[in-house]
Amino acid sequence: MSNQTNRSTDGLKSKPSRDTLAVALDAVNDRWSLHIVRALAFGASRYTEILRAVGAPRDVLAARLRKLAETGILRARSTEDGKVAGYELTQKGRDLGQVILVLKRWGDTYSDADVPTVDFIHDVCGEVFVAEVRCQACGRPLRSGELSVDQESAGC
User: Fold this and answer.
1) What's the whole-model pTM score?
2) What would the pLDDT profile of 56-115 be if each residue is shown by its tens digit?
3) CA–CA gap between residue 34 and residue 107 (Å, rounded)
4) SS3 of residue 55 by DSSP
5) Nearest to residue 35, comparing CAs of 109, 93, 111, 91?
6) Bridge partners of 6?
């Protein structure tokens, strides 16, 4: 992954190579970023609403909001006089919702029984949505152990 170090044949540490997965992990590699995206996706938009939903210290939240804006995951909405009126997800941020839905399914499976779940309704069919990762080529659901890394494209 992006924070692993590789060792060369002489045992010296080398910098891990960058690939699209490393870039994606780096975009949300702290404790609060996905919580902020979740809060915005659930309807929070003002700083105080995000603060209440996330629970991060104010200085940390402000820094993460800046980082997420710089990476294009969210944008600040401004009033006519230039003050920040709230935040909203960009398309890039909304697309992270798919990642969060897969994480939600993992949480539904492995959380303690007393942790409440949140259901999402698929607006098209009206049924409870459960995220499932499928192979684009064959359409089959992906199961643990069914992937291997293409060594020609792997940068690690």
Assistant:
1) 0.78
2) 999 999 999 999 999 999 999 988 888 889 999 999 999 998 999 999 999 999 999 999
3) 14
4) coil
5) 93
6) 14
Q: Which residues pair with 121 in a beta bridge?
A: 128
Residues 47-52: contacts with CB within 8 Å, 24+ apart? 47/84, 47/86, 47/87, 50/87
Non-local CB neighbours of 80 within 8 Å, separated by 6+ positions: none
**Separation CA 5–CA 16 (nearest Å):** 5
- DSSP at 134: B
Please compute, for residue 122, the number of CA atoms within 13 A of its CA located in the half-sphere on the CB side.
9
Amino acid identity of residue 139, one-letter, is: G
Residues 6+ apart with CB under 8 A from 23: 2
What tokens does 83 get? Answer: 């003050």
